[in-house]
């Protein structure tokens, strides 16, 4: 289905070939009558025979381009090739001809031949055509012979060794699946064997306090540029609650200063001039706004930091106790405290932003899927609530919640308990989508409100991406609104969206009229599809580069406002910061991370050190130095945490743009995975020592004959 939407149709031959093979393994084709093979072969030859211009000559040009016979990049040649292959598979006489030694050898090297023929054709052969001009039959013969030899070498040296390695990995996966099946079978009659069943709440509270150490060192909760969106009074929700007879939520007469700040930066969607409609940007959670505003009013954001710390400590403790069977004790508290001080985790806990909830979501998914059989019903209910709140807090979190369980279910160690945990995560995703619809309904209840989605995809494509080449080549015929601005691209994505640049011509979306903003937002998926269809290889290369680049960008400073943006002189306060209360201005000026210039660089270096050490420990275990097949819980937990980091980089790096803040919010999961591996290894000898010693049965007495 994805190929039908975004890729060239010719690439679907890979899919149809795989389907024919799977049908062969399942015995589907054996149930067809003998005439089916001949019919498929003849029909395939008919569909594949037409050449260019066939549709016009036979009056078939009224068909969509993809369905016109003779279009080499359409669906008709794909169907023809698929039917020919199926016919050959069903006809015994043709099979015997293809089973001869030369054709079997060609089949053996076919994949390698597919990989190597284009690079050589576009380099050496192209150079020869330009510089030498040898006779074409000679060039063709040399090229074919060289390709066959190179493909044979590639098959022997790369392809077949890779397949053998894959076979060993599959065997290891089958072993892990057997272990997981045994665990699931034991779980059907009671709690998961080896899971720690003692209370975790005392250690959760201690770990919560340890995670707030960085906030205490800073002297308060930090704010980011976007924090102002979440800290102003949620008037619309409070008005709805006011209809209840026992609740009085009337807004105050005085204008809320933080609401004024939200209007100043236009992130909350304030109206601009005159009768212009009020713009509301999706992706800013009303529910996290209520949560942050309550903490703002109740205790100057300290309750927000405490809740953040609890939402990290609680699933981490359940993951340790129920998933790995290790009792959370003082090492757990010290480990969480060290993560808070030596990685961006502590800064995220103490910042009024929902970024911390991305890592919380990964922990929650891992706890539900790894420890489902040992979790009590109230643990499951609370984890469900945390997962729902995390996903409804930001759109990127919802995408992470959708992809992570699906990726984990592809692992060979999946079992019934994992499916149940994934089902509860899926229910949380469904709930989050429903809550987002409620938010949209509330936001657009006034006729003068326009709900827009920021065009992050467009911003990324025109930021030195393949979208630049497409628009410059296809405009103005393509008809996109962005064609009007093709003379100003490429544009740095933050300048395009948020007016970060100093050149007015580059602040296209940020300063455009409402109708233009709406048009750019509405066309972003159509433009993305057009760019992908135009040059899928360039888009894949662009996406892969963004993904890899995002994996290594996790400077903790990316999640904080620069120190220079919080001046000491009130006369120099920036627009976004000026309307904050006096106590918040003073608190931001006195944050230790701003006043101690060494803290952020040291934190960045510490994050690299912790991450590399954790990856080294995990790699050492993966190389077979330890028997991982006997510990499927450890494999699942570590894999879930690492997959969370990788998927977050894909979601943020590809759909938005590589940025330190996006990966800093979740990079601490890699050191946590390393600590989980060490905790499981340390607990294994003690469990073996405490296991009951089997009493040998007495030898049977020999009966004299």
Helix and strand arrangement:
Blueprint: H1 2-6, H2 12-26, H3 35-48, H4 54-57, H5 75-90, H6 92-98, H7 101-131, H8 136-187, H9 201-211, H10 213-218, H11 227-231, H12 235-241, H13 257-265, E1 278-281, H14 286-299, H15 302-323, H16 330-342, H17 345-349, H18 356-370, H19 377-393, H20 395-408, H21 416-443, E2 449-452, H22 456-461, H23 466-474, H24 493-498, H25 514-522, H26 524-534, H27 536-551, H28 582-589, H29 592-595, H30 599-625, H31 632-655, H32 660-664, H33 669-690
Parallel strand pairs: 1-2
Helix pairs in contact: 2-5, 3-5, 7-8, 9-15, 9-16, 15-18, 18-19, 18-20, 18-21, 18-31, 19-20, 19-21, 20-21, 20-31, 23-26, 26-27, 27-31, 30-33, 31-33
Number of helices: 33
Structural class by sheet pairing and helices: mainly alpha
* Oligomer classification: single chain
Measured as a percent range, the helix fraction is: 55-70%
Strand content: under 5%
Low-confidence stretches: 1-5, 185-193, 243-247, 249-257, 264-274, 688-705
